[in-house]
Structure formats: C-alpha cells, structure tokens
Amino acid sequence: MSESSTQAAIETVARNSYGRLIAFLASRSGDVAGAEDALSEAFVAALEKWPTDGVPDRPEAWLLRVARNRLTDAARHNHVRQQSETFLRQVAEEAQTMAETHEHFPDERLKLLFVCAHPAIDPAARTPLMLQTVLGVDAARIASAFLVSPAAMSQRLVRAKIKIRQAAIPFRVPDPAEWAERVSFVLDAIYSAYTVGWDSLNAASSIHQALAAEAVSIGRVLVQLMPSEPEAHGLFALMLHCEARRAARYTSEGEFVPLGQQDTALWSQPMMEEAEQHLRSAAAFERMGRYQLEAAIQSIHANRAKTGSTDWQEIALLYEGLVRVAPGIGSLVGRAVALAQAGQAASGLAALEQIAAGRTVDYQPYWAARGHLLQMLDRNDEAQKAFTRAASLTDDPALRHYLFERAVENI
Q: What pTM does this model have?
C-alpha cells in the first residue's frame, strides 16, 4: 500500500475512532495523558507498518494492541507497582477483546466529558480539555479559539490531566444530583467542538471537517442519557438547525453564501423537523436557557423555508433574552444585527459600539457586522474599513473573498 493511501486510512481511523479509543483506555487506566501517548505511538507504528503489511481488517484492534504494549512498557519503565502493571494489562486485554468481538467500538466519551467537568479541574481548563481529549481538537486550534497562546493552553491541559490522575477522579457518568454542576461545561464543550468543525467545513483537507458531525453525534447521545435536561435538547436542536443548512453555505464553485441569501430548497427538512421536536421537548420543562434561546433564533431563520421571510422583530426579542442569560460577545453582536435588520440600524450600531473594545479587537463577526450596519447607514468609507478588517481575521478563503467584495460594493 502506498504511503498516501496509508495516510488516508489512518486519518479515517483518527476521525472515526480517536475519541472513543482515548475515552475507553483512559476510563479504565485513569490516566488521560498516558492513554494519549500510547495511542499516539500506536498511530506512529501504523504509519511504519501498514504501507508494507496492509491496513488490518480491524484497525482499532491493531491500534489497541500496540497501545496496550506501550502502556505496559511505560508502567514497567516508570517502576509502577506490579499491581498497577497487572491492572494495565487487564485494561488492554479488555479493550482488545471489545475491539475484536464488537462490530462497533463502545462509545464512552460521555464518561470522559463528565470527568473533564469535575469540580477538581480548573474551570478555565474544562472545556479545552474536553475538546482535546474527547473530540481530538489540537491544542493550537483550541488556543486560538480561546484567545490564549499555544504554550499557555498546553500547560493548562497538562496540569488538568495530571490532576485527573493524581486525584483519581472516577470515570463515570455522574448521578443526576451532580448533573447541574457539570452539565453546562459539557454542553459548552460540545458546542465549541461543533463551531470549530463548522468553521472548517470548506477546508477539504482539514481533519476538523469531522468535528461538526462528531459533536452532533455526542449531542444526540447526551439527549438520550439526559432526556429531562432541557438545555441538552436545546443544544441538539441548535446544532441540527445549523447542520441543516450545511449544503447551502457555499456554491458549487466554493463561493460563500450568507444566511439571508441561501437557497432554502437546499436546507435539510428532516433535520429542521427533528430540531423542532427537540425544541418542543425542551419547552415542556419550562426552564429556559442559553441553548434553547439560540435554537429558537435559528428556528425563526429556518421558518423562512416556509414563509419566504424572516421575522427580525421576534429574533431581536429573543436576543434580548439571550444577552441576559449569556452576555457573550456572540450574543451581543447578534442582538445588534437583529436590531438593525428589524429597522433600527442606528440602535444596532450603538449596541455594537457599547461592546468593550478589548472583546472585539480580533473578533471577526464583530467587524463583519459593523461593516454591514455602517453600510445600512450609508457610512460607506467606514464600512469599507470594517469589512476589510473582518476579511483579515478569517482563515476561510471564500468568506474572505465575500468580505472583500462587500468592502468595495459602494466605492
């Protein structure tokens, strides 16, 4: 097998199985970093062996066998007590048996999600830790998303993994009494992974393409696990509404299409209907939260497929509620745009300008929104500068081209 074919096969296994493999190994060894190191070495071994030996019929079983050896070798090298080494052998043998006798490897990522949300873990590290260990997002990408240096993020993640091992945090889904404390971090991690994947949808060579689908998959499992948690339903509905519009985001030539100009015939009706079902399920609990509000906003956008128009007044009202519950930069920018689209362009711009400059300096949607609102107010010179700055802040070539085109529209 050629090196390129081997690389493609390994990337496929990584996309489909990395998170599940790490969760399975770590949940039994109690050592997240050790599981990551062992599996990484297994992937390196695959790069060396598979071009000549061929891709095994069960790649997961092969990787687990190699990871087992690495875990055991590490235990012996570090002079771990015999009891621990025996335990690691038992863990690896169980993993090997599971991979060889089950068509689908068991998905225990939810256990690891809740471990990462444990009160003993630094709150600032919880969501990044989930993104890396459970969903496979690399530290540099996480650092960029959280606006910190890669070195600082790496140190934060290392400390968190050491804490998990030293505190012997149990790998289990918590009892319902513990959910309230940790579920918000789990929801945030899933949505953060979804947005990272969503931002990379047009990057054909990016491994992060699979993240959006992975996040939706975990969201579905979370709803099944926690059917009485309205925010789990809300988050799942939000992701489904966004995912329903995947095919309409870019033209066949790869050009970016903004939401208001998308062809609604390309939107997935079954996904939108499923999203609405989960919104109704969430509403029945009468406990409104951030994700339900965000999903409700996307629901109104989705209704354009039926009515041909968007109720911006209703969206503006929902954003008012959202900024009270979750006054993040995204909701503040969204409220400003909704006000402008509802006929209050000056008020929308004023709302944008009330956001602290330190929060907006590198936030691309802010500058795109600012350009749009300034253009609505016929302040075209200022709009050009804002759109140009927005274009400089995106890695998506299609979006960058679209923003540059907006910048020169009225020159």
A: 0.77
